[in-house]
Amino acid sequence: MLNGVERLFAWDAKSAKLPAKAVTNANRLHGLQADLLNGVLETGLMNESLFSKLIYKATSSLRLTSSDSPRELFQLRFFLSACLLAIGVGMLSLVCGIASGQYLASIFISFFVTGLLLHLLAARLGFRAKPLMWSLLSLVTVFLIVISLVTREIDTSQLCWLILIPLTTRAFSAPRVEDDQPQPSSRVTFIASVLSVCSALLIVMLHDLGLTFDQPRLPEPAWLVASNYVLFLASVMGLVLLYDFSARMMIEELQRVRQLLSICAWCRKIKSEHEWISLEEYTKMHTGSDLSHGICPDCRESEYRKAGL
DSSP for 144-189? Predict the structure, then answer.
């Protein structure tokens, strides 16, 4: 997860045409900078809640390849967290379905969980976050439509699950690098809401045409109704919390990285945006203050010794 921001310190030593020893020293310096960055981000996690720590550990253990941008890191973190949440809810739904005798629905749920596991495997193998998010959105949409067509009578409670479609697409409105606060996702949410409404209309139309799996709707015991409500609430609130967590983590990482200065190990210039400037110029640019030059006691004595005084 940290490789995306470590790139801020990366540079091509070979293209700089430095001697071999200088290249070795530069690589060591880059490694120290990367370790410093990792330490800063890990320290930030110490102040997070237990929920944040669990999500961080779970997602970082599933993806070891580097990402191209903080935006993709955000999408990847949300994707992995959403898959883990969906697998947990799916397994509980599978148990409830088998216990209540809804075997065909349980088969579809098992296929859905298998699809989620394949998505996690694809992420582990290094697939990009954006195609994975589109694939996950398609999987969720198809599953919600198919599971609503199991019984010959329409189950209006199943339509409520379609709210997961706009919640899933919030990952496409990831914050940008220059943002200091998470940006509103109204446009993406509106498009996803239209997709959700169209899916609901499709389900109603297929039921009217009799294009269902023609399973009888069994009476649901009280424990099953309560379980479905709890799983639905966990899915909705879980996705909301995961989005907020992913966005907050991204903003905090960027803010911590901005607080780290990259200094040339030779001339002591500071990297500001896309150029290297002197310490005096950097101070003038960011504080508006001018620097006056003096000499410290240690350097004065050293210079006196060099001059034989």
Answer: HHHHHTSBSS--HHHHGGGGHHHHHGGGGGPPPTT-SSPPP-HHHH
